[in-house]
Model the fold of this input.
Amino acid sequence: MPMAKKASPAGIAEASFAARNLWADQVFLARGASGGERAGARKIRCDELVLSAFPAPDQRRNVHLKTLTLKGFKSFASSTTLHFEPGVTCVVGPNGSGKSNVVDALAWVMGEQGAKSLRGGKMEDVIFSGTSGRAPLGRAEVQLTIDNSDGALPIEYTEVTISRTLFRNGGSEYAINGEQCRLLDVQELLSDSGIGREMHVIVGQGQLDSILQATPEDRRGFIEEAAGVLKHRKRKEKALRKLDAMGANLTRLTDLTNELRRQLKPLGRQAEVARRAVVIQSDVRDARLRLMADDLTALRNLLAAEVADETALRERQAKAEAALAELRTQEAEAEAAVLQEAPHLVAAQETWFGLSGLRERFNGLVQLATERVRNLQPEAIEESSGRDPEQIDAEARLLREQEFELSREVEAAREVLAAAEARRLDAEQALLLEEQRVTAADRAAADRREGLAKLRGQVDAARSRTQTRSGEIERLTASIIEAKERGEHAQGEFHAIEIQVAGLNQGEVGLDQEYEQALAALQRADSAVEQLRTAESVGERERAALSARLDALELGLSRKDAASVLIASTERVPGVLGPLAGLLQIDHGAQAAVAAALGDVADAVVVRGVDAAVQSVVLLKEQDAGRAALVLADGAGAGPAPVGAPPVGTWLRASVRCDDSLRAVVDRLLVNCVLVSDVRTAADAQRSHPDLVFVTQAGDIFAAGVVHGGSADTQSLLEVQAAHDQTTRDLVVATHDLERARYDLVAARNVQSTASDFAEGALNRLHESDARMAAVAEQLGQLGQAARSAHAEAERLTLARTAAEAAHELDQQNLSTMEVRLAGAENEPAVDPAGDKREIFAGQAAGSRQDEVDARLALRTGEERVGAVGVRAEQLERAAGAERQARVNAIARRERRAVELVTAQAILAASRIALSRIEGSVAQAGRDRTAVERAKADRDQLLTKLRSSIRELAGELDLLKDSVHRDEIARAEQRLRIEQLEEKA
Done:
């Protein structure tokens, strides 16, 4: 990627103006060289100008971009890193080389969300899509490093690296110094440095001239934007839009109020139907209560019967447990007796087994001793079956003498063999010398013939090379002429296409301006649609929340007590006006205080006069509906009104508005009540004015000698009614806002569709222009490459022809030299070898080898005879020694057998005596063991019977326990049903 290069004076002036008037800390120029520059005109066009602007000269910070790394972003398939320095940075290159992609990367990494702003149809277009020689990539990544050495950014790093990664599947990631974050985090980090969202400026192609020639009003707009005034202007515009919307909502609210007044009569009829339904519900409730009473009586009788059955089962269970305990005691005693006698049985068994084993051992010993005595009886003296040792020694001495004579003959044969080997070596040496002489003579003759043939081949090869060099020189000359003609033709076409490029550059400027305008209009339309969509979503959520709150409040207002019965019986009691909470209007924040001051009266029903009150009380008694508080409209005179303002706070009755018929009642109920802010103020005021009642906004009451306060578990009916009224009003406003937002959203989407179509058309035209420019640039590159290749080929061919001519002259010289050498070699005489004596020497060598073989055979025969005689003599000597040792061993064996016979006879006699005594002991041990085993069997039988009885009794006891347990569960369930019926009743 080409880095910063020297710019033209016009470019330097433009950058200086930007730095001087906009306080830009860093200016980034991406410049493209046109065909005129290559032709020598040196015309430089600024494609993009990026200014990082700051608020004011006194707040200027030394922030600049240090590096920009692109991986897979548009045309940057491989990882590319650009290093910047403070000041002007220029990127130059032909059209279509990717200069604008660098500027797109800067905007994209700083949070650009519009694909069309990046000259694409969708955001996926920023990922490298592949070429004919390289596959497409799966993601695009851009990293921007900002110098933060002076701490301009609110982060504790001298360098801040912001990265953005987009995957082809649509996923996107942002990171700050390698830590993943949100787009909002990046925008907030950059906002203080002046390069955050809508606080950096990208001046596109053809727009720099509008800045340089701007009017004072336009320059003021640039300065205000750089100084951060833009966000305050947007806030002002947003506030004005809200005021306009509020006025429209107010108008809509008036219309809805008028409409609601017309809907009150149908709602009154619905209320009458609801009151009749309440009476029917009361009758149903009475019938249910009577049925519950019958069910409760039946369950109680059943419970008493089951309790009696449980008592009988428990008595049987106690008897079974006592019997089981007795049997377990007997079982324990029997087991203890068995355990006590177990050692005696074990000892008797061990004694019997031990004596039986000892008897078996002595039986075996008697049998073994008897067998040994029989085997050791005296035998006849063994006759010697071997030869006499003296005779064997005599034969061995004769064989030793014969071995000595044969050894002397072997030594004589060895001397004969040595002489034969010497004669053979002399004959073979003479034959070898003769063969070497003859071979040397033959080789000399062959070398002369071979040398002549090789020399003739070299002469023919040199003549052929000379002819080949001549043909190559002619071919190179023709190729040089052809290459020069191609170069001149390509150069001519190159200059012709350069003239066409100038016209294309002028048309591209207009297309860029058209696209920028269309893109700006589309961005405005997208922003408007997004804002309206957000407003619609917020409005829907707000309306849904208000509807749910209104339903919950209506459920809270629906009452099922004596007051609801009176409200539903307006036909029987015409004087019932309704609940007091629905007839009062209380200032916001005073609902809890008024409810606390009124107490139970806050849930009262308003009736007109004493007669209506009497009818209401009679009705409640007739229907057994409970008790209710009644407030008599026009039935009580007003109490003494307090004089002047209260010592602190305000009079509580001033926060309540109602009809004139209730005014006197409300004043009397709230007489001497003062509304204060907190508990401390109420306590201090009560000490100094004990005749007044002070009520806090939270509902705490401080009166003479009495204090009511704390946290309320639920809201009073007054608070619920006030919340219901406020929620109703908020729901009407929210519905109107939602309808207005939907209407505006439809219009904005139409504008967005029109702007999108226009921008897409401008982008297509711009892409077509870029494609034409790229095609022309590619054609220029091909023609330039063709011209350079042709000139280079001509130069290379010229050098090759020069080398070929030099080689041709050298081949001519070598050919002349070799022809002279061939003529001299053919005139030399041939070499004739001497007589051949190899057959004579070969016959002598063969006779010598035959004599040597005969001598070696005689030597081997003698050596074998000597070895055989020696082996035989050695065998006879060993046989004589073995015979002498056998006779000594026989004498020792007879003596040992006599001693062993005496020992075996003594052991046999002792074993028979011990065996007779052991037999008696074994019989006695057997009788003792039988008696102990019989006693154990009797106790085991008794223990088995006891355990069988215990199992039967334990099974019966388990059945009784299960029955008692089931009865307990059933009674518990019956008691629970009785309690539920009692609670329900």
In short: Residues 1-60, 380-385 have pLDDT under 50 and may be disordered.
